[in-house]
Amino acid sequence: MSGRVGDLSPKQEDGLKEFRKNVADVLEAHHDDHFLLKWLRARHWNLKKAEEMLRASLKYKKQMNVVELCKTWKDPEIIDKYFVGGISGFDKEGSPVWCEPFGSLDAKGIIYSTKTSDLIKNKIVVSENMETLMEEQSKKLGRKVDSVVVVFDLEHVNWHHVWKPFVDVYGQILSLFEANYPEALKKCFVTRAPRLFAVGYNMMKHFLCEDTRNKVVVLGNNFESELLKYIDADQLPAHFGGTLRDPDGNPRYTTKVCYGGKIPESYYSRDKMQNTENMKSVTVSRGSSLDLEYTVDIPGTYISWEFQSEGADVGFGIFKKDGSDKALTTILPTSRCKSNIVIEDGQVKVEHPGTYVVRFDNTYSWVKSKKIKYSIEVLPPDNEVENQLGNDAPELANESSQITQL
Predict the structure, then answer these.
(1) Helix or strand or coil: residue 330?
(2) Are strands 344-350 and 289-296 parallel, antiparallel or unpaired?
(3) 3-state DSSP: the chain helix, strand, coil percent, rounded to 5?
(4) Which residues pair with 350 in a beta bridge?
(5) Model confidence, pTM
(6) Mean pLDDT in order along the chain per 10 residues (406 residues)
(7) What is the tens place of the pLDDT at every residue in 301-355?
(8) Cα–Cα distances in Å, from 337 out to 158, 303, 366, 376?
(9) Residue 190 φ then ψ, to 5°
(10) Residues 159, 400: contact at Cβ < 8 Å?
(11) For the chain, how far is it from start to end, CA to CA, in angstroms?
(12) How far apart are CA 316 and CA 332, in angstroms?
C-alpha cells in the first residue's frame, strides 16, 4: 500500500486515526488526511517520530511568523537577480516543475553578498507559494497534487559549489525543506552532471533522508528524451529539451527561470570576504616547513585547500608518501603563494589511495615566521553516483574550468 488517501491498509488506517488524535491540539481546519499522511510516510509510520516532526515544524513556522512573512517579504536585490530557479510549468500529472540551474549560481558570490537568514526566508516563501500552487492545481484537476518535480542542472558547475561555507549554507536550506515540507519532492532529475557531482553529492547527501535520496535520478548530458517522458515539451524550457522560449527566442526561458550569473564584487561584504573563522591557525617558524598528513582511501578523491597567510607570502605544495620510507612523490610542486594578499584555494584529484602530505614551506625566509589560517579537505566521491555517471562524464561541466588531475 502506498500510504496515501484511498490506498491504506487496515493497519495504516488505524495509525492515521491515532495520529490525528495525538496531534489534535495543533491541527487547523485545512489539515486533512493528505496533510497528516505526509508526516507519517516521512517517518515510516512511526507515530511518535511523526508527531515530533510535525510539532517541531509547526513551532518553527510560528517562530518564523510564516503567514506574515509570505505577505510582506521582498527578496533583496541580490537574491532576486542571482539566486537561481523558477517554475516552468507542470508535469504530465499536474505537478509543478521547478527548474534549478544550480551550476549557474555564483556560489562564492552569494555567500559573500547575502545573509544566510535572507536565503532561508526566500526558500520558506518559495516553498509556501509552491504549496499554494499545488492546492490550486488540486482544485483545478479534481485530485490531490502535493509534490514537485525538480530539474537540477549542473551546466557550468565548478569547485565553488563544493566550497565548505557554501555547502554549509545550502545544507541548512536542504534541512529546512526536509524538516518542514515532507514528501514534497516527487522526483529530482540531475542534468549535465560532471564527475565532480559525485563529490558534491557525497557532501550534501547527509542533509537528505533516504527516501529523498531515492528520488534523485542522475541523467548526465543525454537527458532530453528522459525528461520528456514525464514533462510535455510545452512545459519545459528549450534549454532542457522542451519548447518554451522567451519572447526574444532565448531557449533558457529566463522570463520564468532565474539563471543567476556572476555577482559583481561591488555587492560583496568585506567582513564576509575576510571571515576565516572556520579555518585552523598555525605558525610556521622561520627557515622551516610544516607537513600535514591526510589519508586517501578511495580512488578519484579530491584534496581541496584554502589558506591565508599574514604579512608575507608562503610556499605550498602537495606530495604522496611512497611506502614506509621517507621518499615523497611530488603531486603539486611547491610554489610561493601571495596568500597574504588574497586567499589561495584549489584542488587536485588523486587516483591512488595512500598518505598525502600538504606542505606549508617557509624555508626560504630566515627572518619571518608565518602565521597561516587554512582549511584542507579530503573529498571522496559517492561510489553509487560515480557509477551512474559513466565514463563519458567530464570532470567539470564547464570545460573552461581547469582542475589538476593525477
Answers:
(1) strand
(2) unpaired
(3) 40, 25, 35
(4) 301
(5) 0.82
(6) 91 96 95 96 96 96 94 95 97 98 94 92 96 96 96 92 89 93 96 89 89 90 93 98 97 96 88 71 94 93 91 91 82 88 84 94 91 92 76 56 32
(7) 999 998 989 888 999 999 999 876 678 999 998 988 888 877 888 888 898 999 9
(8) 22, 18, 17, 16
(9) -95, 120
(10) no
(11) 50
(12) 8
SS3 (DSSP) at 11: helix
Nearest to residue 40, comparing CAs of 32, 48, 31, 28? 48
Helices (H) and strands (E) in the chain, counts: 13, 14
Output the pLDDT for position 275.
63
- Residue 163 backbone zone (phi > 0: left; psi -120 to 50: alpha; other: beta): beta
Cα 362 to Cα 314: distance, rounded to the nearest angstrom:
6
Distance CA(349)–CA(203), nearest Å, equals: 16
CB 187 within 8 A of CB 215: yes
279 within 8 A of 375, measured Cβ to Cβ: yes
Please give the single-letter amino acid code of residue 152. Answer: F
- What residues contact residue 48 under an 8 Å CB cut-off, 6+ apart? none
Q: Provide the CB-side half-sphere exposure for 28 (13 A, CA).
A: 4
User: Of all helices (H) and strands (E), which one includes residue 90?
Assistant: strand 86-90
| Nine-digit cell string for 89 | 510549468
Burial class (CB in 10 A: 0-12, 13-18, 19+), 272: middle
Cell 627557515 sits at which residue? 287
Residue 269 backbone dihedrals phi, psi, to 5 degrees = -90, 120
Locus of grid cell 612523490: 329
Using alpha carbons, list the distances in angstroms from residue 220 to 195, 334, 382.
10, 36, 15
